[in-house]
Structures are given as C-alpha cells and as structure tokens.
Amino acid sequence: ISTDEVYGDLALDDPERFVEERAYRPSSPYSSSKASSDLLVRAWHRTYGVRATISNCSNNYGPYQHVEKFIPRQITNILDGVRPKLYGDGRNVRDWIHTQDHSSAVWTILTRGRLGQTYLIGADGERDNITVLRDILRVMGKPEDDFDWVRDRPGHDRRYAIDSSKLRRELGWQPEHTDFESGLRQVVGWYTTHRSWWEPVKAATEARYKAQGQ
C-alpha cells in the first residue's frame, strides 16, 4: 500500500493524471522512501515469486485520522477556537478519497487483483487546499476567510491527480463516497463527538507546526 507521491507532481494546467505506467519522480525524502519500497516489492515478486501487489492511493480523509493531517487539523483548530492555518498560496491540488473507499479498494485488490500488478486508487476528488479549507469553514458555520496564511511546506508538490481506470475496469471497483461535502460533514461530526480521541495529541502536534512556522 503506497502513495501517489511516488510520481512527483503535475502542473496546475496539466490535463494529465497519474497512471500505472508513469515513471517515478519522487520529490521528497518521504516519497523517495515509498518509491524505493515499491521497487523492492516488484523485485521480490519477479526474483522470488513473492505474492504481492502494489496500490498507490491519493489523499485520504475520514474518521480516526491523526490531527497532523490537513483536514483534521483544520477541523480540530476550529473546534478549539483557533483560526485554521493555510500554507503557501493555497492552490496546491490533492485528489481526495474517503478512507472507506480506500479500504474497499485495497480489499478488492487483495482478493481479486493480479499478482505483480500495480493499481492506482482514486475517486476523482481533485480540490485545491484553499477550496477544501473554505468547505470546512462553511460546514462549521465560519466565514470563508477566517484563517491565517503561514509559510509553505518545503518541496511542496503542486498537484496530484489519479486515473483509477485500471482498477475500475479490471476489478470492478467503484467509490461510494463521491459527494465530498457530505463526507466532510460526517468527518466534522466525528471529530466534534470524539474530542477525547484527538485532544491528547493536539497540543504537541501544533507545537511542532509552530516550530516550523506553519
């Protein structure tokens, strides 16, 4: 189970999306480590016949996601009475997928996927960060400009976009959570009613972001 970050990034005006045959171009230490692990899995499958598949997925959102991640960080900041933080110019695009759809895709690949194959998992959920943040603010009854700009992330990839045609065509998988705002409302409700789950790690997480100017 890997990430779409192994493919690098796309320009905002590029009509292309990631496909399984795209060359790896990781641009961060994290994505480089994921790319190398993918290559090792392929090598072990070819050389020793290890029964393996690879899946590369887009950005997840849903319950139980750590508060360091983009969507839960904004939600929990608002719940704490703190203005959300948006880094860079807010135009970086991510391809969002609900965690339940990711899980169902992984299960489909595990039970029906062809050994040695790579499958991209995505739900056609491209949105730039500022749009996602404004969606959160609106759902939570806040003005759409009620946030602070902070320093950009180092090596921040511009755009991710996944073409999951192979997974859908060969294995018959389809996402169920295709209404992003509806899914977002459910996630806001979950974090609102599960403060005891995320509050113990919130302060330390925000301290790390503050030290980075974010």
Written overview of the protein:
The chain is of the alpha/beta class and 214 residues long. It contains seven helices and eight strands. Strand 1, helix 1 and strand 2 (54-57) form a beta-alpha-beta unit. The protein is globular, with a radius of gyration of 18 Å. The mean pLDDT is 96.
Mean pLDDT: 96
Strand portion: 5-15%
Low-confidence stretches: none
- The helix-strand sequence is EHEEHEEHEEHEHHH
Q: Structural class of the helix and strand makeup? A: alpha/beta
Q: What is the count of β-strands?
A: 8
Spatial sequence of strands, sheet with the most strands: 1-2-6
Rg of Cα set: 18 Å
Please describe the biggest sheet, giving its number of strands, its sense, and whether it closes into a barrel.
Answer: 3 strands, parallel
- Secondary structure: helix percent: 40-55%
Form type: globular
Number of helices: 7
Sum up the structure in keywords.
globular; 214 residues; 7 helices
Walk me through the topology.
Elements lengths: L1 E2 L25 H20 L5 E4 L1 E3 L8 H10 L5 E3 L5 E6 H14 L5 E4 L4 E3 H11 L8 E3 L14 H7 L8 H14 L1 H17 L3
Parallel strand pairs: 1-2, 2-6, 3-5, 4-8
Antiparallel strand pairs: 5-7
Summarize this structure briefly.
The chain is an alpha/beta fold. It has seven helices and eight strands, in the order βαββαββαββαβααα. The radius of gyration is 18 Å and the shape is globular.
